[in-house]
Model the fold of this input.
Amino acid sequence: MKGYVFHGPGQAAWEEVADPGVEEATDAIVRVAAVTICGTDLHILKGDVPEVRPGTVLGHEAVGEIVEVGSDVRTVRPGDRVLVSCISACGRCRYCREAAYGQCRGGGGWILGHLINGTQAEYVRVPYADLSVHPLPSAVDNEDAVLLADIFPTAYEVGVLNGQVRPGDTVAVVGAGPIGLAAIATARLFAPERILAVDLAASRLEAARKLGAEAVADASEAPEQLIADLTDGLGADVVIEAVGVPESFELCTRMVRPGGHVANVGVHGKPATLHLEDLWIKNVTITTGLVDTRSTPTLLRMAAAGRLPTSQLVTHGFPLDRMEEAYEVFARAAETGALKVVLGGPQREVVPLPAA
Done:
């Protein structure tokens, strides 16, 4: 089969790799029908995630069909159409028993495309299949479902729930990429008074407006002043960091009100300064986290009922064998307008990129 293989910072290729097979009784083998590319994959290619070894197939989100299962798998069988979660869960360790699957200590957590071969391939081996794949309702198509493997549960759990968004809140989302947009969409479920989106790209700010952000701000034009003007100088109740660079995190800490919450979702590759000389007196709560995907069944039900705007985030579609082109389009989002790129779903006309 073929897969998208990481060979070191700045080096990856769609190439022949060994077919996966059942290695443990809890494994499932999935024929991949649709995958997407995550910002975390770009961090890996930049060298920000040194745990990823050269030779690893990337990717941690997919929809596909079960083709083989180990002898201990009980919840799915060959022929089932499933969502492959970005998090694998052993189901036995202390963290799994608390539904904190992202912190699994039994061999799970974020392992696909990180510690073991991932989903950006024609087939993928999924450990702990009973808790790590989800049968899909027929009402949810592949293109919508694949966005529930990571970005929607991540935005909802690590951003909205960790940030404790409540009715009447002012919510600021810094970074209107796919995660930030999913945070806007799921924050609306809690009826905040207003949502402010902050980004440098006009196309992403427009997407944020369409998803329900009532105010948008260019990150280069002092958005903290806009927040102050909207809140009589208090600041936002909840600020969600969805970029992963020091400047965006520090901006979030300047925008939050006393007693408010900063929910960091972004993957950081460099240290950020925590200005405790300003924050120590403000009763601010700062949370970090890796998604647990405990909300995935709920989000699947909501998607089946048409309550999540998943398809609005998909801007580009490719066949699997155009993985390298899809990565280029996604990595150059400022030029291409890419939000989510889906491979294996409906194909879209793509304008060729100018030379980098």
Summary: The first helix runs from residue 39 to 46.
